[in-house]
Amino acid sequence: MSQSIDYGELMHQAMRSLIQQVLREVAERGLPGQHHFFITFDTTHPDVEIADWLRQRYPKEMTVVLQHWFDHLEVSDDGFSVTLNFGDSPEPLYIPYDAIETFVDPSVEFGLRFETASDEDDDETQLPDDDEEAPLAENVEPDDTPHDAEVVSLDKFRK
After folding, report:
1. Each residue of 15-74: pLDDT tens digit?
2. What is the pTM of this model?
3. Distance CA 62, CA 100 (A)
4. Which of 12, 16, 81, 153 could form a disulfide with 94 if both were Cys (CB 3.0 to 4.6 A apart)?
5. Residue 97 and residue 20 in contact, taking contact as beta carbons nearer than 8 Å
């Protein structure tokens, strides 16, 4: 038995479970109301499956949006797969929960951020700027702009 309880890891497991449950409901019923998700993930994670051209374009991290058009959303215990449209080119993606860095639903100002040792100096997660080129393609309509969302950080509750 370990010498201490790793509350940080337990919290990350709980947050990943929440994401899994939300995505499972969306896979079964679709997105309700104005809900949509900005999901930023580590493209260097060994289990991430994306097209080679996407990995070259986004060598460290990538933000995708589940909103207007996505297909084949399948949720498993370890991650999810989805097909997104990049400039009229449907591309399948597989994203393990361990690779997710942020999960934000700006429609209800909800966000989760998975902190690592290198993130501890950062205060907040930034959503992509309007002029920043992100792989949103037809997943977001051109006049849609993300709302600020409160990101829940474990550090807020630490003493």
Report:
1. 999 999 999 999 999 888 899 999 999 999 999 999 999 999 999 999 999 998 889 999
2. 0.71
3. 10
4. 81
5. yes
